[in-house]
UniProtKB/TrEMBL annotation, chains A, B:
Pfam families: TetR_C_13_2, TetR_N. InterPro entries: Homeodomain-like_sf, HTH_TetR, Tet_transcr_reg_TetR-rel_C_sf, YxaF_TetR_C. Residues 25-44 bind DNA. SUPFAM superfamilies: Homeodomain-like, Tetracyclin repressor-like, C-terminal domain. One of its GO terms (molecular function) is DNA binding. The keyword Transcription regulation applies. Keywords: DNA-binding, Transcription, Transcription regulation. Residues 2-62 form the HTH tetR-type domain. This is TetR family transcriptional regulator. PROSITE patterns: HTH_TETR_2. PANTHER family: HTH-TYPE TRANSCRIPTIONAL REGULATOR LMRA, TRANSCRIPTIONAL REGULATORY PROTEIN.
């Protein structure tokens, strides 16, 4: 039954990303996962909320891995930032503006309505900020500057996803890339 | 019955902002508006979707008016930007991190699921970008620079709202203010 649990989390992640937490029903999730209905409560006795928490944490950690892709072997910080936003823009266009941040929709939905899930999103954002700060320090940034640039990068990316998905064009992501690079220039030693 | 319609829109705006579109029921809205249930369909024959569209457009236009507050009589662009983010941070803290952008949650929810409401959010963002661009031009910015700065400001604000509401602190908003000011410095003549 190992595969079933994984399929439920994967299907849940896809549905939550596209439809949000309240917009997704558990029935929809098991159907998309081609899993028997009872298996959801077998693996997630806490039901939708427990699955939601696991989806937030799992998707969040997978997204965090992207930091490595863009910055691990990149000697130039500004190129790394540009590549990051260019790739996000390409993914958005390729998926008809559906695949953006895996947890932002849910994060906004639960921020004032579900404390358990709010904390899961906060843990994910904290992990991103900590990992990004460490990653960006290798470009010679002071800890506080690296943290500030990481937060600015996440701010711009998340905000641009809202605009780009709504407007169905990537202008906001292009501007986000340009403005994050501009900030990076002021912070580099 | 004029007051009833207004109360429904106001209650709808408040509920959609906090709980999202799918997380809000029409019953909840009429109850919060202290309106008879039938009045919702009397004023909004298209039901929840029609009300949602009006709420998005009305809230969006009210939020747009904030641009005037921060930039109308402000001789210094950088002070205007700082005041904008400082005020957003203060509002978030004062409302226990509930009152941020009136349409972002809904915008993400409907981006891939409801084309009519997606267009309403796109019209709002377009109005913000156009109005902001015009407003910022008076600081001597070229049209393209004014547009870029406006989009960067909205990106940073929207993204910082996601992080700040999730993390329950205003660090992301503080960084958003600093990075938008940094970009503005590079664009000013």
């Amino acid at each position: 039954m190992t595969g079933t649990r994984e399929r439920i989390v994967t299907a849940g992640a896809e549905l939550l990303r596209r439809n949000g937490y309240t917009g997704t029903g558990v029935k929809q999730i098991v159907e998309a996962a081609k899993a028997p209905f009872g298996s959801l409560y077998h693996f997630f006795p806490g039901g939708k909320e427990q699955l939601g928490e696991e989806v937030i944490r799992t998707s969040g950690m997978m997204y965090l891995a992207l930091f490595d892709i863009f910055f691990a072997d990149e000697p130039d910080l500004l190129h790394g930032i540009e590549a990051c936003f260019a790739s996000a823009a390409e993914t958005l266009r390729a998926t008809d503006y559906a695949d953006a941040c895996p947890i932002a929709t849910v994060a906004l939905e639960v921020a004032s309505t579900n404390e358990k899930l709010r904390i899961a999103t906060a843990d994910v954002f904290t992990a991103w900020i900590d990992a990004g700060t460490e990653k960006l320090r290798k470009y010679g940034l002071e800890p506080e500057a690296a943290r500030r640039l990481t937060i600015a990068l996440v701010n711009s990316l998340e905000g641009a996803f809202v605009l780009s998905r709504s407007l169905r064009n990537t202008e906001a992501l292009d501007v986000a890339g340009i403005s994050t690079v501009a900030l990076a220039r002021t912070l580099l030693p």
